[in-house]
Amino acid sequence: MKGLVKAPSIFGWSLVSLAGALFLSSCCTMPPERPLQHVGVIDTHIHLYDTNRSEGVDWPPVTDKVLYRPVLAEHFDEVADREGIPSTVIVEASSRVEDNQWVLDLVKRNPERYLALVGSLPIGTDEFAGLLERFSKDSRFVGIRMRDRPGGDGFFTDAVWRDLGLLAKKGLTLDVLIHNFTIDEVTEVAKRLPGLKIMINHLGGLSITRDPFDPDWKQSIEKAAVHKNVYCKVSGIFQRSGVKPPPKDQSFYSPVFKVVFEAFGEDRIVYGSNWPVTDRGGSYSEQLNVIQSYFDPDVHGKLFRENALKFYGLD
Question: Is the entire prediction scored with pTM above 0.90?
Answer without folding.
Answer: no
